[in-house]
Task: inverse folding
């Protein structure tokens, strides 16, 4: 069973949607959701699809060490992203983790990712399909 770490900040809407879609496609996954703030964690908790929940910088650092797959918006690997919610230590933990990273591109917070349509649900679907494929691999 692979351990999937979903990280999100701000309101946690993307994280909640990721958790719900991952659970549908990968019911056997062990999903840990970590919010960079309590609102994001609370929103992901409401999905009732997670095995573990945590909040804050240290939770990101600790959980990133043990994850097989890390999922979240592209900003989780960029220091000071998400209006400063992603600390350099969090970004470093995500970037240096041995986990496979599935980063959802977003054109927010003074970052433009070329080729990304704003609000495209196809991007989220592609990310979840890729995670399902990773779950099938040994």
Result:
């Amino acid at each position: 069973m692979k351990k999937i770490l979903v990280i999100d900040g701000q309101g946690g809407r993307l994280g909640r949607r990721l958790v719900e879609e991952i659970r549908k496609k990968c019911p056997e996954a062990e999903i840990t959701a970590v919010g960079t703030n309590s609102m994001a964690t609370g929103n992901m908790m409401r999905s009732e699809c997670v095995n573990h929940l945590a909040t804050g910088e240290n939770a990101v650092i600790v959980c990133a060490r043990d994850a097989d797959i890390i999922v979240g918006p592209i900003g989780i690997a960029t220091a000071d992203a998400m209006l400063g919610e992603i600390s350099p230590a969090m970004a470093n933990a995500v970037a240096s983790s041995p986990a496979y990273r599935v980063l959802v591109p977003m054109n927010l917070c003074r970052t433009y990712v070329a080729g990304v349509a704003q609000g495209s649900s196809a991007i989220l679907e592609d990310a979840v399909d890729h995670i399902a494929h990773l779950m099938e691999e040994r």
